[in-house]
Every structure is written in structure tokens, then in C-alpha cells.
């Protein structure tokens, strides 16, 4: 009965009655749909072009919500004539627009309604997460009503919400005065809907703390702006997660390029600008905007729609789009997404998806089927460069041509040229901005609690690609992932009654995979949790075995490739189109830099060849000059965020969700302590190495001294004088053999010391032994004349024997060996002054008088043979003066 198919819910706004319906397949639970719930009052008359007001409550009545509300006024519908349309869009986009058009016939300014799809819960005690779908394609046309959310709600056990918001000139009429800008009325509609939904989600069994936004194309751009907007209540965010499909606010088409120019064009064509204002546009800039707005509010919606449709934006750009107003959009999206000011942006979990050729709909059908010529390629690239860039256009175009030319086959075919143009448009307008958005969201420069995932949907729907079977284009096109996410392949009515149709069994399996991923992300922020992948088909079994890692630098920007290969539809890859993304996000911005400050460059330098020749471009180009440029007030810079230290990152895994819980202050102290300990340990290790090096040097020096002493002991023991053998004094056999080590010390002394000092230390002294005889005629005596420290003189007197320059030391008898305990280290045992003989003689003469045994200067020697005394002709004062000289002390240290 009718009552059994109805569900009544009492909300804070009033009682609503919904209808229980069955989803597209029999094995899913039923869904209650509440269609046409108002969330804002009708923006008509004086409320037109202004922020939305909340819908009035209906607490004293019951509202039947079983039919769809009208769509918002479509001010930017594409060309509907097939002949003209096929020159500017693909056949797929043309067919989709004509399938959507019947559902857009009923249009009204009173269009701010939402549709809620609530499944019968399998677990009655659990609250359901909420998914809000922000329709897209373009800012000037579309509606939320045509998209059915029953299958996704039933399969994923989530609440699905679709809604309308003002479009084109009614929702994004940007205008600026001297102090502020206004024009984001469409965004205010979304904020109003989210505010109402957050307060009433619990009445429908939903979880108001688990709301996710999903958008594609222009809808995705709006969602990304809301992620960074302070209007979404930072203390109690209106939503927790976001899904962006082929769109972001960083795309060139996402923000209005010249809002003031479009506003004045519309005002002039509506006759709302006086002739005086046309002559002095500054009057409008300084406070005349409100008068123009009141004039435009008096016009009918049809009039405004007709005029707005005639205002065409340059190709690849938007005329009526969001602007920087300081409230909904406080600054440029690149600033709002940056690590310095993107805290709001990074608080939200993010999933991003893209098709293989998101720009497919931008090329004419004939070119897509048969390819394009080099001339057509050049026109398209020239138009892209002229509309997107202001400086160094020739350099940028040359770089693009070089980047996308197949140099292994420079004479490319028409289809190869077509593929290159598709890649250029996709990379510049969609892929590169999406990757920049992902990198900004997953940046590890600051701490964050959110998660980031990325997928490439490359599955081809066979029935759709049959029309272009011979085109050679392989992959998915614009918006191909939408029906798989919403569950259209599972519908029993696979015919033209549905917005999408023509699916096979593989498509149905892949649709269940996509709905599982999306519903899990809506619930937990992770596409693989909490519900495991079912195994109803081989497609699902394949994806169940693949772990989907997060997108970040630690995981090498990993992403999931879905359906590109029929044999292996689930693959995890890294760095999606990284070379081309680097070209558009790295090289091109450098080429586009204006140049050095203070250096004036003629404007003609930035012109492309044949700049003013219209037929050398493709589509509409940005006008040169035109109306006087009225400056837009610069947006206020957001406050500088506090410096935050990044907490330690967890080990990467496919489902890692929670970051470390340690505070940033504790992390800072821990880092400084670790650094201090590391430096201390390094210095300690260095000191230990230096100590061991010095210790080893000392030990080597000591070992060398001991080795030298042992060598001299061995020499003395082995070469002592034999008293039984008599040698002639002049015989070579009377000379002692050289010591084991070289006489380096003696030669050093001879070279360094002056002759006077050398003679004093090692002078020729007569020595006698009981077994040795010296001949007076063979002794060389030295007479020294010393005058220190000013100069030194010496004379040499030689005797008859020319064979001996100095007296040879007598060999020590083996029978007269003396202990060497008293000999200093480093002194030769045979030294006549400090050796064994000198010590023995000194000991033997202790009891005798020095004068009785010695006659200085004569030939008679005492019994004790005091051979160590200096010559008698050197005064004692000179000897004392010499011993105090620094050189003598240095030589003494060398000997010791």
C-alpha cells in the first residue's frame, strides 16, 4: 500500500515524507528517497546575486518530498545543434547533453533543494555516513536531480545526497569595488545546504560527524575550494572528507580570469550602465556597483540567461566562475593549498580520481575520429598558450612542441598528432593541477592527520567505444567513472530511460568495486576499510588481492590503476605521468616568469606570430586591450601559522591511518637531545682516536730507543779487544768495525754545530790503556780559539802522519766489560766520554787526586787515564758560557 511505501521523518525544519523504492538490483535492500527538501529560500528579486538565506521552517505542516525540484537556470548550456556542436565537442559529450536535457527542461530561480537517499540499515544500531554529490561538468549548466543515488546508498550502506546550486551568472557573477569583491553566491548555496544537513543528518539516521563531498569537473573545483575555506567552520567542520574527480581549483579554468570584464559586459547588454559610466568606468569601481546590481535584479531570468549565454569565455577558460572574495575564497588556491597556509585544506581526507583523457570532450568529433593536421594542432596549441599565459608565449609554445613530439618519428600521422593534442590538453588543464593538489595535500612539511589516495580510471565501456572502434583512442573519456561510482551498471533498466546505459558483466563487477571503494572511504577515510571486497565476480576477486597504498612521497606517489587492462585490471603504480607533470608544473612556470624587476620588456615581445590574425587560432582567444583594466583589490594574506615540527612518520602501509600521538614540543626536545648526544659521542670518539695515536707514537719511540740500546750491547759483546792479538797501529785491522746503525747523530752534529762547539764536545783526547800504545807522532791535536757568542775561529795543526784525521777509539777488552746500568739511554757504550770506559775510569779514580795522575797538555797520563777532560788551553769561563748556550742545550737533548 501507499502507506507501507512511505517513510516519515521529523526534522528540526519540519516533518518530511519520503518514498521507499527498490534499487536497481534485487539483492540489495530498499532505499527511502526524500526528493526536493528545501535548504534555502528562493533567491529572487532583491535576493538575486546575493548570498543565500536559509529556507523557512514548516514546523506546522508536513512536506511531501516525493518529486524532484526544478533545476537551476542554465545560463551556459553548450551548443545543441548537431552540426555546430560536433565541430567543438565529442559525440560522447553531445549524446550525454541530449540525455540530460529532458531532465533540465523545468528551470527556476527557486531551485535550492536537496535529495536524500537513505538505505534500510542492515545494522539497526549504527549511524550511517553521508555522501554529498556536487554535480559538475561546467559552471554554467547541470543539476543534481538527474543523478540517482539509490544503488550507491543501498550497496554501500551510506546516505547519499544530491543537490542544486545556482549556476553561471546567477551563481558566479563576480564584481569588485575599491575595497572588496563579491560573486560566490553558488558557493554560499553549498555552505547553506551543508549547514542544514549537519543539523538534520541525525534525524535520518546519519552521522553528522562523517560527511563527505564528491564532485567532478567544476563540482570538484568547488569542493577543493571548500576544503580550504574558513567559512566551513574550522572548529566544527561541515564535512570531513572529499573526493575530486577530474577537477581542482588549481586548474586554469577553475577561477574567473576577468570577472570585472564579464560583469560589465552583462551590465552593458542589459542597459544597466549609463553612458557616463561607460566613459568613466572608475565611477563604477568607486561605488557604483550596487546601482548596477539593482538594475539587473529588475530584469527577468530569461533576459539575463539570454544575455549571459552570449558572453563567451576564451577557450579553456571560464567567464562566470568563483573569484577571490576574502570570505569563501580568502586567497589564491595555490596559497590556500600551500604547506604554510593549508592547514584547513589538509585536515580533510582526500581521494582523487582521473580518466585517461579528461579533455576528450574539448575536441571536435571529426578530429577525434580521423585525426588532425599539423596546422590544426598548431592552432589549438597557439590558442592554449595565448589564453593561459601572458609572458614569453613563443618560448612556451616551442617547449610544448618539443615535449610532445615523437622524435623517433617526427613525421607523425594525423592520429598521432591528435593523441598528442589530447595529451597536451589533459596534462595542462586536468592532470598536472590534480597532481599538484595531491602533493600539496600529502606534503610532509607539516604534521597532518588526514589521508590521501589517488586512482586512474582507465576502463573502457565497450558499448560506448563501439562508435569509435577505429579511432585508435584507448582508455576512458571525460566523466566515464561517474556511472560506475553511482552503480548504474547494476540497474535492471539498462535502456535510454537511464542517464547511463549499455553495460556488460565486466562493467557490473567493476561498478561493485568502485562503490565498495567509495563507500569505505566515506565511512573511514580508507577505501579498503571497513567492508572487505565481495567476491561475486572475478573482477572483485582480483581487486580483493590488491592493497591500495596512500599517495605520498614515502610511498613514491603510489596510485591504483583501475581497468586499464582487461587481463590485469588492478595494478599499483607510481608517479602518474610524472615527466609531463614535471614539464607543466616546473619548466613552464619558469619560462612564464615575467623577468627581472625594473627591466622593461616591450609587450610585442610576448606576442605569438600572426597574433592579430583570427584564423590562426582555434576557438575564442583572449582579447587584446579592450576596456580599461580596473584593478581588483588584492586579497588579504592569511595569518602566518605557528611553526610546527613534523612528528615522526609511521611505517608506510596500505591502510596506515593514525599518525604518532606525541606532542610537537616533546618531539622538539627529543630531537635536540638526540643531536646533542650524537655530537658528544662524535667528539669523544675523536679524542679517543687522538689519544691512541699519541700513545702509539710514544710506544714506538720507546721501543726504538730500547732496540738501539740492545744493538750497542750486542756490538760491545761481540767486538771486544783480544789482548793476545797485536796489531800495528796503522793497520786497518786496528780500526773497529762500524756500529750496526748509521752515524747519523754524529754527522748531524758535524753539520749543525760550529767547529768550536764540535771540538769541545767530541775533541781529540789522548786515551791510554794497559794494552794500547799511542805514538806521539800520530796524534792530531786541535788548538781552538773561542770567542762566543759573536764569532768563532779555529785552527788545525797536522803532524807527520797523513793517514789519520782523528784518533780512533780503542776497542774494549772483553775481559774488562763493565755494567751498562749507569749508561744513559741513547749513548754508545764505546763513547770515550760517557761510555763504559769513561764510567770505569771515573770509578777507579774516585780515591785518587786529580792532579797526581794527570798532566794536561803533556804525554804522560795517570794510571786512571782521564781521557774525558777537556784540553787545558780552554778557559773554564768559556766552557761554562758554551754550556749555557741554547745550541749546546739543543745538542744535549739530541744526544740524550
Description of the structure:
The chain has 896 residues and is an alpha/beta fold. It has 2 domains: 6-616, 3-Layer(aba) Sandwich (Rossmann fold); 719-895, no CATH class. Strands 1, 2, 3, 4, 5, 6, 7, 10, 11, 12, 13, 14 and 15 form a 13-stranded mixed β-sheet that branches. Strands 8-9 form a two-stranded antiparallel sheet. Strand 1 (6-10) and strand 2 form a beta hairpin. The longest helix has 55 residues, at 664-718. The protein is globular. The chain starts with 5 loop residues before the first strand and ends with a helix. Residues 626-631, 648-666, 720-736, 740-822 and 847-872 have low confidence and may be disordered. Residues 628-665, 768-807 are annotated as: Disordered. Belongs to the type-B carboxylesterase/lipase family. Keywords: Membrane, Transmembrane, Transmembrane helix.
Task: Summarize it.
With 896 residues, the chain is an alpha/beta fold.
Features:
896 residues, 2 domains, 13-stranded mixed beta sheet, two-stranded antiparallel sheet, transmembrane, transmembrane helix, Neuroligin/BSAL, Carboxylesterase type B domain-containing protein
Amino acid at each position: 500500500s501507499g502507506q507501507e511505501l512511505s517513510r516519515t521523518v521529523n526534522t528540526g525544519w519540519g516533518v518530511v515524507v519520503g518514498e521507499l523504492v527498490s534499487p536497481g538490483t534485487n539483492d540489495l535492500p530498499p532505499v527511502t528517497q526524500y526528493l526536493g527538501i528545501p535548504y534555502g529560500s528562493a533567491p529572487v528579486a532583491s535576493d538575486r546575486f546575493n548570498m543565500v538565506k536559509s529556507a523557512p521552517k514548516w514546523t506546522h505542516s508536513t512536506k511531501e518530498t516525493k518529486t524532484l525540484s526544478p533545476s537551476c537556470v542554465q545560463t551556459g548550456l553548450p551548443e545543441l545543434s548537431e552540426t555546430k556542436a560536433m565541430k567543438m565537442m565529442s559525440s560522447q559529450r553531445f549524446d550525454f547533453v541530449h540525455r540530460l536535457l529532458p531532465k533540465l527542461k523545468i528551470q527556476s530561480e527557486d531551485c535550492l533543494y536537496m535529495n536524500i537517499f537513505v538505505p534500510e540499515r542492515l545494522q539497526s544500531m549504527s549511524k550511517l555516513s553521508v555522501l554529498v554529490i556536487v554535480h559538475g561538468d561546467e559552471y554554467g549548466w547541470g543539476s543534481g536531480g538527474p543523478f540517482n543515488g539509490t544503488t550507491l546508498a543501498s550497496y554501500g550502506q551510506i546516505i547519499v545526497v544530491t543537490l542544486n546550486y545556482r549556476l553561471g551568472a546567477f551563481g558566479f557573477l563576480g564584481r569588485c569595488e575599491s575595497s572588496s569583491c563579491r560573486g560566490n553566491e553558488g558557493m554560499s548555496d553549498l555552505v547553506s545546504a551543508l549547514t542544514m544537513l549537519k543539523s538534520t543528518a541525525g534525524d535520518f539516521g546519519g552521522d553528522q560527524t562523517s560527511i563527505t563531498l564528491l564532485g567532478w569537473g567544476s563540482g570538484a573545483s568547488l569542493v577543493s575550494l571548500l576544503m580550504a575555506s574558513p567559512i566551513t567552520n574550522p572548529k566544527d567542520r561541515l564535512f570531513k572528507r572529499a573526493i575530486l574527480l577530474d577537477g581542482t581549483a588549481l586548474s586554469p579554468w577553475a577561477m574567473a580570469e576577468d570577472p570585472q570584464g564579464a560583469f560589465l559586459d552583462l551590465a552593458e547588454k542589459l542597459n544597466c550602465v549609463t553612458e557616463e559610466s561607460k566613459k568613466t568606468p572608475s565611477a563604477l569601481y568607486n561605488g557604483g556597483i550596487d546601482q548596477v546590481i539593482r538594475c539587473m535584479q529588475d530584469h527577468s531570468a530569461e533576459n539575463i540567461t539570454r544575455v549571459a549565454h552570449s558572453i563567451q569565455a576564451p577557450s579553456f577558460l571560464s567567464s562566470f566562475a568563483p573569484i577571490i572574495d576574502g570570505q569563501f575564497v580568502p586567497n589564491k588556491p595555490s596559497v590556500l593549498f600551500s604547506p604554510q597556509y593549508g592547514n584547513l585544506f589538509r585536515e580533510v581526507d582526500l581521494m582523487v580520481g582521473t580518466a585517461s583523457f579528461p579533455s576528450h570532450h574539448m575536441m571536435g568529433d571529426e578530429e577525434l575520429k580521423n585525426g588532425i593536421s599539423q596546422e590544426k594542432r598548431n592552432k589549438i596549441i597557439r590558442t592554449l598558450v595565448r589564453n593561459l599565459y601572458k609572458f614569453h608565449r613563443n618560448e612556451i609554445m616551442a617547449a610544448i612542441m618539443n615535449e610532445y613530439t615523437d622524435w623517433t618519428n617526427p613525421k607523425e600521422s594525423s592520429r598521432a598528432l591528435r593523441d598528442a593534442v589530447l595529451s597536451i590538453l589533459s596534462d595542462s588543464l586536468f592532470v598536472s593541477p590534480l597532481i599538484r593538489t595531491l602533493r600539496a595535500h600529502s606534503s610532509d612539511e607539516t604534521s597532518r592527520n588526514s589521508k590521501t589516495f589517488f586512482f586512474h580510471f582507465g576502463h573502457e565501456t565497450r558499448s560506448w567505444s563501439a562508435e569509435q572502434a577505429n579511432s585508435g583512442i584507448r582508455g576512458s573519456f571525460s566523466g566515464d567513472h561517474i556511472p560506475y561510482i553511482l552503480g548504474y551498471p547494476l540497474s535492471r533498466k539498462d535502456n535510454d530511460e537511464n542517464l547511463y546505459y549499455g553495460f556488460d558483466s565486466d562493467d557490473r563487477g567493476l561498478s561493485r568495486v568502485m562503490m565498495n571503494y567509495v563507500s569505505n572511504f566515506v565511512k573511514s577515510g580508507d577505501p579498503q576499510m571497513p567492508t572487505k571486497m565481495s567476491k561475486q565476480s572475478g573482477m572483485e576477486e582480483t581487486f580483493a588481492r590488491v592493497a591500495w597504498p596512500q599517495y605520498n612521497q614515502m610511498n613514491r606517489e603510489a596510485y591504483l590503476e583501475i581497468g586499464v587492462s582487461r587481463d590485469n585490471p588492478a595494478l599499483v603504480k607510481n608517479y602518474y605521468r610524472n615527466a609531463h607533470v614535471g614539464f607543466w608544473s616546473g619548466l613552464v612556470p619558469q619560462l612564464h616568469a615575467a623577468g627581472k624587476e625594473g627591466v622593461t620588456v616591450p609587450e610585442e615581445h610576448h606576442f605569438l606570430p600572426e597574433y592579430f590574425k583570427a584564423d590562426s587560432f582555434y576557438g575564442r582567444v583572449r582579447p587584446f586591450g579592450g576596456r580599461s583594466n580596473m584593478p581588483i583589490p588584492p586579497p588579504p594574506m592569511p595569518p602566518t601559522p605557528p611553526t610546527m615540527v613534523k612528528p615522526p612518520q609511521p611505517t608506510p602501509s596500505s591502510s596506515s591511518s593514525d599518525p604518532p600521538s606525541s606532542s610537537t614540543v616533546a618531539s622538539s626536545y627529543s630531537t635536540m637531545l638526540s643531536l646533542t648526544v650524537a655530537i658528544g659521542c662524535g667528539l669523544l670518539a675523536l679524542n679517543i682516536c687522538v689519544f691512541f695515536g699519541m700513545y702509539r707514537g710514544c710506544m714506538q719511540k720507546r721501543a726504538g730507543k730500547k732496540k738501539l740500546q740492545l744493538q750497542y750491547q750486542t756490538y760491545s759483546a761481540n767486538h771486544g779487544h783480544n789482548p793476545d792479538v797485536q796489531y800495528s797501529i796503522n793497520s786497518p785491522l786496528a780500526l773497529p768495525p762500524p756500529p750496526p746503525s748509521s752515524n747519523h747523530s754524529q754527522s748531524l752534529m758535524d753539520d749543525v754545530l760550529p767547529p768550536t762547539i764540535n771540538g769541545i764536545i767530541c775533541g781529540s783526547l789522548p786515551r791510554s790503556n794497559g794494552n794500547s800504545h799511542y805514538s806521539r807522532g800520530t796524534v792530531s791535536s786541535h788548538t781552538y780559539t773561542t770567542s762566543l757568542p759573536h764569532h768563532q775561529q779555529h785552527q788545525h795543526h797536522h803532524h807527520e802522519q797523513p793517514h789519520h784525521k782523528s784518533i780512533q777509539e780503542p776497542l774494549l777488552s772483553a775481559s774488562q766489560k763493565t755494567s751498562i746500568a749507569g749508561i744513559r739511554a741513547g749513548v754508545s757504550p764505546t763513547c770515550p766520554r760517557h761510555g763504559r770506559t769513561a764510567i770505569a775510569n771515573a770509578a777507579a779514580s774516585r780515591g785518587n787526586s786529580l792532579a797526581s795522575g794527570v798532566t794536561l797538555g803533556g804525554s804522560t797520563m795517570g794510571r786512571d787515564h782521564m781521557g774525558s777532560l777537556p784540553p787545558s788551553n780552554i778557559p773554564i769561563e768559556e766552557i761554562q758560557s758554551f754550556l749555557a748556550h741554547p745550541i749546546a742545550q739543543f745538542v744535549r737533548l739530541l744526544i740524550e
